Amino acid sequence: MSQRKADPVSTVDAVERVLLALEGGSPVAVVTVVTAPDHGAVGRRLLVTAGAVTGTLGSSELDHGAAELASEALVARERGLRKLELDDGIWELYVESQYAPPALVIVGAGHIARPLCRIGAMIGFRVTVIDDRPEFANERLLPAAARVLVVDYNDPFKEITVDANTYIVLVTRGHKYDYDCIQQLLALEASPAYLGMIGSRRRVRAAFEALVRDGVEPERLADVHAPIGLDIGAETPEEIALAIAAEMVAVRRGGGGGTLAREEGVLDRVARAREAEQGGG
Question: pTM for the complete prediction?
Answer without folding.
Answer: 0.77
